[in-house]
Amino acid sequence: MTAPKDTVVAPSVVTNPARLRGRPTIQGTRITVERVLGMLAHGCSFDDIRESYPHLTRDQIADAVRYAQGLVIAQTPGVPGETDPEPRDWERDGEWTTAEVGE
Predict the structure, then answer these.
(1) At 14, is the secondary structure helix, strand, or coil?
(2) Each residue of 24-62: pLDDT tens digit?
(3) HEC-encoded secondary structure of 3-18
(4) Spatial distance between the Cα atoms of 95 and 28, rounded to a whole number of angstroms
(5) pTM for the whole thing?
(6) Long-range contacts for 13-20 (Cβ within 8 Å, ≥24 apart)?
(7) What letter does residue 26 receive in the DSSP assignment?
(8) Most buried residue among 7, 60, 93, 102 by CB atoms closer than 10 A?
(9) Which alpha helices (H) appear in the chain, and where do they start and end?
């Protein structure tokens, strides 16, 4: 029997029903998008995440956040007459903007 293959769902993000019950992970790792978001939500910076997972790149972390952002946009009803917004300017030089974190 052949093992299921990864399905690319976004840049650097894959799913595989044989890995972590199909949760989205960073390609080539078992690190879930959920884990990355949780670390950011608890105040970790991109550099903190890279310190914990040195094999991750800043681009992979950003791709995980963009993937999650796309899911939120897809699940949020639009305002009548408006098209889907451009991606938010949520990151500059790999760090959260103060407007985004409410500081």
Answers:
(1) strand
(2) 999 999 999 999 999 999 999 999 999 999 999 999 999
(3) CCCCEEEECCEEECCC
(4) 24
(5) 0.74
(6) 13/63, 13/64, 13/67
(7) E
(8) 60
(9) 33-41, 46-52, 58-75, 98-101
- Cβ–Cβ contacts within 10 Å for residue 8, how many? 11
Beta-strand relationship, 13-15 and 25-26: antiparallel
SS3 28: coil
Separation of alpha carbons 56 and 46, rounded Å = 10
For 7, 58, 78, the CA distances from 29, given in Å and listed in that order, are: 14, 15, 34
User: Hunting for tokens 């799913």 — which residue is that?
Assistant: 15
Q: Closest Cα to residue 56, out of 97, 15, 27, 18?
A: 27
Q: What share of the chain is helix, strand, coil (3-state, %, to 5)?
A: 40, 15, 45
